[in-house]
Design brief:
- By secondary structure, the chain is an alpha/beta fold.
- It folds into 2 domains: about 120 residues, Rossmann fold (3-Layer(aba) Sandwich); about 100 residues, Arc Repressor Mutant, subunit A, CATH 1.10.10.10.
- It contains 8 helices and 11 strands.
- The chain has a 5-stranded parallel β-sheet, with helices on both faces. It has a 4-stranded antiparallel β-sheet with strand order 6-7-8-9, with helices on one face. It has a two-stranded antiparallel sheet with strand order 10-11.
- A hairpin with a 2-residue loop joins strand 6 and strand 7.
- Helix 6 crosses helix 8.
- The longest helix is centred in the first third of the chain and has 13 residues.
- The chain is elongated and about 60 Å long.
- The chain starts with a strand and ends with a strand.
- The relative contact order is 0.11.
Length: about 220
């Protein structure tokens, strides 16, 4: 796996590089935001590990710009800022996961490996429709009542899974395993954040609401009966 580490703390970066190389992965390192953005834009990586607070350009602005440019590379945000609002801000900027410093290296390694894991091919459907909501996998587009909806890569993957299982209750465990590739509960509110963000995009301003929370069970994408 090819990993880009954008981290200005030289000791922290050296620790990461050493551990990742011992695990068999290849690493590039950028010590500031401008260099990190340049490398992320010019080379293909399997995972980006991005510190939030960087000289020249902060980590979240790098992620937001790469997402706006269509880059879907998984991003793990590292930060000493660990409050709920900090994590929510990082995920909304386009991060796929958020890990607070100090951290256990084994946990970081597990997280980036599942983030980079390829999804098993074999899905036959290329498009889904629930009411006025349409998703086209080949065009990577979403519309509701003919109006285009812009989704971040993780939001698109989440909606795709919900639409594939339209009318059924999808549990948090199912989402963790099929959308985030986690086969354990990372004890974060990542699902809640992404569901809330997705709901605001596909339901706000439209009738009826399609994304339902099934209390105590999970979520379901369905037309109200």
């Amino acid at each position: 796996m090819q990993v880009l580490i954008i981290e200005d703390d030289t000791e922290a970066a050296a620790y990461l590089i050493k551990g990742l190389k011992e695990a068999g992965h290849m690493c590039d390192h950028a010590a500031d935001g401008d260099e990190g953005y340049m490398l992320a834009s010019s080379k293909q990586y399997d995972v980006l590990i991005v510190d939030r607070m960087l000289p020249k350009r902060d980590g979240l602005s790098i992620i937001e710009q790469r997402r706006a440019e269509g880059d879907e590379t998984p991003v793990l945000i590292l930060s000493a800022l660990g409050e709920v609002d900090d994590r929510v801000t990082g995920l909304r900027a386009g991060g796929d996961d958020y890990l607070t410093k100090p951290y256990a290296f084994t946990e970081l390694l597990a997280r980036i490996e599942v983030m980079a894991r390829r999804r098993t091919p074999g899905e036959v459907e290329t498009s889904y429709r629930v009411g006025g909501l349409e998703l086209d996998r080949l065009a990577h587009s979403v519309k509701r009542d003919g109006e285009p909806i812009i989704l971040q890569p993780r939001e698109f993957r989440l909606l795709e899974y919900l639409m594939k299982n339209a009318g059924q209750v999808v549990t948090r465990t199912m989402l963790l395993e099929n959308v985030w590739d986690y086969h354990f509960d990372p004890q974060t509110n990542v699902i809640d954040v992404h569901i809330s963000r997705l709901r605001s995009k596909i339901d706000k301003g439209f009738e009826p609401a399609l994304l339902q929370t099934i209390r105590g069970s999970g979520y379901s994408l369905r037309e109200p009966v």
